[in-house]
From TrEMBL:
InterPro entries: dsRBD_dom (IPR014720), RNase_III (IPR011907), RNase_III_dom (IPR000999), RNase_III_sf (IPR036389). Mg(2+) binds at residues 63, 136, 139. This is Ribonuclease 3. It holds the Pfam family dsrm. Its EC number is 3.1.26.3. The gene is rnc. Belongs to the ribonuclease III family.
Length: 257
């Protein structure tokens, strides 16, 4: 009897069961604000789960609100942090910070993936690691915080989570070709050419790549991503950041020909 009942769960019951199967308190601690279960559950419900269970409400409406909260919060902070920058600089800086990549970075920092309610298809294809799903769910969380606690609370969460990105904003941001940027920087410093060494783990359909970028004998940056290309870009970005603070580590070390 209990088995047949299990197969006849309504959509709402399946949602409640899936939501209760994960302890969400660590996520709320990392966000730094409490959310009622109704708001949190909706924010975490991806359309793939909703559609598989009788077309339940999903998080896309909250995502719409969260996108607006995020955009205004970041724009205002950039306006304050960089008073001498023209609009032509501020707009791409904002775009880079609130991009899919920027949001996915934050999602990984707060370990959002395990909390998302996904349908079987997305679950099977690594949906918890997809930048698009991580980014959209992060925006939905901001929308939920706004709905329950108001704009000020939501803005404060955004600014705290994005503080490092705001403090180190660049005009090109994540969309920059960091490998080219690194190459140019190394040339300026008369340093050896960058060499990338990548490894991967996991099955063919769900590999995770780790890339180290070496300048001479030393690794100056490491990146992790779902493809070799993305891992190398992340490694190059971290190397560029390292060289901003420690140019002397590689300056003038290129071999004379």
């Amino acid at each position: 009897m209990s088995r047949s009942r299990k197969h006849k769960l309504s959509g709402e019951e399946a949602l409640a069961q899936a939501f209760a199967a994960v302890d969400h308190s660590p996520l709320l601690e990392r966000i730094g604000v409490q959310l009622d279960d109704d708001y949190l559950r909706l924010a975490l419900t991806h359309r793939s789960f909703a559609n598989e269970h009788g077309h339940l409400p999903n998080n896309e409406r909250l995502e719409f609100l969260g996108d607006a909260v995020l955009g205004l919060s970041v724009a205002t902070k950039l306006f304050e942090l960089y008073p001498s920058r023209p609009e032509s600089d501020l707009s791409p800086m904002r775009a880079a910070i609130v991009s899919r990549y920027g949001l996915a970075d934050i999602a990984r920092e707060i370990d959002l993936g395990p909390h998302i309610l996904l349908g079987k298809g997305e679950e099977a294809t690594g949906g918890r690691k997809k930048d698009s799903i991580l980014a959209d769910t992060t925006e939905a969380l901001f929308g939920a915080i706004y709905r329950q606690h108001g704009f000020t609370a939501a803005r404060d969460v955004v600014l705290r989570l994005f503080d490092d990105k705001l403090q180190h904003a660049t005009v090109s941001g994540k969309h920059k070709d960091w490998k080219t940027e690194l190459q140019e920087r190394l040339a300026e410093l008369k340093a050896p050419l960058a060499e990338y060494r990548a490894t991967s783990v996991g099955p063919d359909h769900d590999k995770t790549f780790t890339s180290d970028v070496f300048v001479g004998e030393e690794s100056r940056g490491r990146g992790v991503g779902p493809s070799k290309k993305l891992a190398e870009q992340e490694a190059a970005r971290n190397a560029v950041r390292f060289l901003r603070d420690h140019p002397e580590a590689v300056a003038g070390t290129a071999k004379e020909h």
